[in-house]
Amino acid sequence: MEQTESGAAPPTLGVGMVGYAFMGAAHSQGWRTAGRVFDLPLRPVLAAVAGRDATAVRAAAHRHGWAAAETDWRALIARDDVQLVDVCTPGDSHAEIAVAALEAGKHVLCEKPLANSVAEAETMAAAAEAAAARGQISMVGFNYRRVPALAYARRLVTDGRLGTLRHVRVSYLQDWLVDPTFPLTWRLEREHAGSGALGDLGAHAVDLAQYLTGELLVGVSALTETFVRERPLLPGAAPGGLSGLSGRDGLDGLDGLDGLDGGAVSEAYGQVTVDDAALFTGRLASGALASFEATRMAAGRKNALRLEINGERGSLAFDLERLNELSFHDHTEPAVSAGFRRILVTEPDHPYLEGWWPPGHGLGYEHTFAHQARDLVHAVASGVAPAPSFADGLQVQRVLAAVEDSARNNAVYTRVPVPVAVPAPVPVPDSVRDSASDSAPDSVPR
User: What's the DSSP call for residue 110?
Assistant: First the structure.
């Protein structure tokens, strides 16, 4: 842990988290770990976690190392020992909680997607912009940007190793909804989730495409489908929805996998009101073409995020199931010896690796949240706007909305609104310039 010139420990940063199940556990791991691995200018302190179920939230606080538990997120925001609010709830509450936290003078980290609608995301981005003028920091939790191999891929693109970009392909496949008897969780209702595989998985795909290329998507053509239109209700859920279901505020990410024993369903059924799968093509601002697939109905695929980028000078490819590796092809080499080569991204000079293990000792999914916490703490300490910003989250939301509009209109090409003027990148002081400084594309608004 970094020390001040006097040898004392650095000042603390009190963190309060709203939501406590899958994504809450991942964020807790990140906050607990970051200061023990990296030299940080502020020491994260897990001050309090909030959720509506008093018993469950107290258990989560004990399990994950939070000093206190609250049953009202407003009480958490009001706490004097909380300087940063981490929002890990379903999307229908992101805007209310994040805006209230910003207006209360807190820094904010909000899970992806930023909101359930463009209107909500616009409200959040405006609140973040106003808060930034007061010195507050806000960031969206697109954690896959913090995979060392993907941060290194961004560096290769920035360095011109791929030349002019031609194609981007991203697929994100899961299978936890293949069984038609899997119950109707909040992820399957539009009023709570906003969309289905599109927002849950497609948001990551869109963000990575824009992050890695440094370009915005300007138009899309899309198809979506709901293969299973009715599912069994969970015990205690009304036929019209899940809004009264205890513990809903704790679920996130691979939703519904927490606490389900395979038999905890009723004989009543409810309507699925989101997509099971989304397939769309797009065009980047430079004219490069992109294709995307997001589904939770791909049997055998547990968390298969794969991408490839082709340029005039080379290509790169990544598979989350082999997240310590990056495949790279240098097309400028003689054809007789050219080809894709495997880069093991575990060297100390690779992004984020300076704090971890000797070369060859791989990292995992959970480490992305420690990297996320690391970058955010540096941003808070330096006052430098982190990425992805709420403005970046808003732009992803605009792409998702365009995808849904296109799908409703028989895949007609639909333009994505983009900022009229893209601000220049914020310079990063040498004192905090590290892999975090590579975390935002130059052309994406911060």
Answer: E
> How far is CA 236 from each of CA 89, 233, 280, rounded to the nearest angstrom?
20, 8, 37
257, amino acid identity: L
Q: Is the CB of residue 386 less than 8 Å from the CB of residue 137?
A: yes
Residue 212 CB partners (closer than 8 Å, separation 6+) = 150, 153, 154, 157, 168, 307, 309, 441
Per DSSP, 384 falls in state: P
Phi/psi of residue 44, nearest 5 degrees: -65, 135
What amino acid occupies position 446? Answer: R
How far apart are the C-alpha atoms of 17 and 27, rounded to whole Å? 9
Amino acid 418 reads V
> Could you read off the pLDDT of 319-371 as tens digits, one per residue?
999 999 999 999 999 999 999 999 999 999 999 999 999 999 999 999 999 99
pLDDT above 70: residue 429: no
Phi and psi based region of residue 56 (left: phi greater than 0; alpha: psi -120 to 50; beta: remaining): alpha
pLDDT in tens, 346-355: 999 999 999 9
Token output for 245: 């279901």
Q: What is the pLDDT of residues 80-139, one digit of tens each?
A: 999 999 999 999 999 999 999 999 999 999 999 999 999 999 999 999 999 999 999 999
Can you tell me the distance from the alpha carbon of 210 to that of 194, in angstroms, rounded to the nearest whole number? 21
Buried b (16+ CB within 10 A) or exposed e, 360-395: eeebeeebbbbbbbbbbbbbbbbebbbbbbbbbbbb
| Full set of structural domains in the chain with CATH | 149-363+390-415 (3.30.360.10)
H or E stretch including 232?
strand 230-232
Q: What pTM was estimated for this model as a whole?
A: 0.89
Looking at the chain, the whole-number percentage of residues with pLDDT higher than 70 is: 85
Q: Which residues lie across from 292 on neighbouring strands?
A: 170, 280
**Residue burial 50-72, b: 16+ Cβ < 10 Å; e: rest:** bbebeebbbebbeebebebbbbe
Are 184 and 232 in contact by the 8 Å Cβ rule? The answer is yes
Residue 301: how many CB atoms within 10 A of its CB?
19
CA 310 to mean position of chain CA atoms: 24
- What span, in angstroms and rounded, lies between the C-alpha atoms of 31 and 37? 11
Say if CB 200 and CB 386 are below 8 A apart: no
In one-letter notation, the amino acid at residue 373 is A
Query: Is the bond preceding residue 388 a cis peptide, omega within 30 degrees?
Result: yes
